[in-house]
Amino acid sequence: MKSQDLAGALWGFAVCAMLGASLLLSPIGAHAQATTTKTDSKVSQARRLIVRDDLVAAGRILEKAIEQDAQSEAIYYLAVVRSLENNAAAALELFRRAAAAAKSDRHRAMALIGAARLLSSNPAARPEAREAWVSVLNIAKEHAEIVGPEMPRSYIETLDKLIEQEAVYIEVRRRIANRLQTNANGSSDTAGSTQKARNQREASEGR
Length: 207
Hints:
The chain has about 210 residues and is mainly α.
C-alpha cells in the first residue's frame, strides 16, 4: 500500500472514530448517571449546544464548569469543542488532561482516543500516537463494552506501516545526500587538480 493510501486510511479511521456525533457525544454521556451537581448540569447543557453546533456557547459553559470542578467529563467535552474548532493544540492538551483526571476506564478511553486521533494526523507525532492507541487497546482488551479492539488495532497497524515507510525514506534521503556530497567533493578535487596541473605547465613554459 502506498504512503498516500495509508494516510487516507488513517484519516478514514479518524473520521469514523471521532468526528461522528454518536461517538463524540454518546460514549460518556449515554452511560453517565443522572446529573446531580451543577457541573453535571452544565456538561449536559454544553453537550446539547455541541449537537446544535453552538461551539462558542458550549465552550464558555464548559470553561466555567471546569473552574468550579475540574471533572474529566467537562474537560473531555471542552477538548471536543476545541477539536471541532480546529484548535488541535488546545484540544490535545485538554484530551490529555481529561485522561489524567479520569476516574473510570470509560472516561479515560475516550480521552485517550481523542488525543490519539489528533496525534495520528501529525506525521511527526506518529510514535506518540501509536503509544496512545496501545493504551486504548489495553483498555479494550479488558473492557470490550467500552471500545472494541478493532479500532485501535487498525490505527496501530496503519501507523506501523507509515513509521516503517518514513524510516526507509529517511535512510534513502541520507544516502542521496551523502552521494551528492561525495560527488561535490570529487568535483572540487578534480577542479583543483586541473588548475594545479595548468599552473605547473605554465610555469614550465616560462609564463
